[in-house]
């Protein structure tokens, strides 16, 4: 499965924010839209990624004044990115190696979406469910008079 297919399953909603905004605005947006990350754009270019991890680090570092901290000083600069044609195994490897739960998907300089570990898990579950259904249908429609290797002979009855 390719990253493009994961985005198809997820849907194409994009959430971005400017890095000159305060963290309080980002937290309000993230909680109201139930998202764990925002891609930071400035001048039409991706400059970083903000997740709840970075927000929590800013809260720890700045205490009660965290709300006034600018996203620019809390975001991850130049985060790892996925390409739409990347295979899911490569995506998972990249997420683990970079310790990123969220990866922006870029097609050149165009943001296609963001994939999360949750999105990957959902895609794997759907793919496995589909494969299971296909295998069960294949077994149910097994030709009479052959065994699993297609060799003529008696089929064992499970009755």
The overall number of domains is 1
- Give the integer mean of the pLDDT values: 86
Largest sheet features: 4 strands, mixed
Q: Which sequence of strands runs across the widest sheet? A: 1-2-3-4
Binned strand content: 15-25%
Low-confidence stretches: none
Shape: elongated
CATH homologous superfamily descriptor = CBS-domain
What is the CATH third-level topology name?
CBS-domain
- Classification by helices and strands: alpha+beta
- End-to-end CA span: 38 Å
CATH C-level name: Alpha Beta
Short description:
The chain is an alpha+beta fold and 159 residues long. It has six helices and six strands; from the N terminus they run αβαββααβαββα.
Which terms would index this structure?
CBS-domain, single chain, two-stranded antiparallel sheet, alpha+beta, 159 residues, 6 strands
């Amino acid at each position: 499965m390719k990253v493009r297919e994961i985005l198809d399953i997820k849907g194409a909603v994009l959430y971005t924010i400017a890095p000159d905004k305060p963290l309080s605005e980002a937290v309000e947006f993230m909680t109201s839209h139930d998202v764990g990350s925002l891609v930071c754009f400035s001048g039409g270019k991706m400059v970083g990624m903000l997740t709840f991890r970075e927000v929590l680090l800013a809260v720890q570092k700045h205490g009660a004044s965290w709300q006034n901290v600018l996203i620019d000083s809390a975001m991850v600069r130049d985060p790892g990115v996925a390409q739409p044609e990347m295979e899911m195994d490569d995506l998972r490897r990249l997420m683990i190696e970079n310790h990123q739960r969220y990866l922006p998907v870029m097609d050149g300089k165009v943001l296609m979406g963001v994939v999360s570990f949750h999105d990957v898990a959902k895609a794997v579950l759907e793919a496995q469910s589909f494969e299971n259904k296909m295998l069960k249908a294949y077994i149910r429609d097994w030709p009479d008079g052959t065994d699993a290797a297609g060799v003529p002979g008696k089929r064992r009855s499970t009755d």
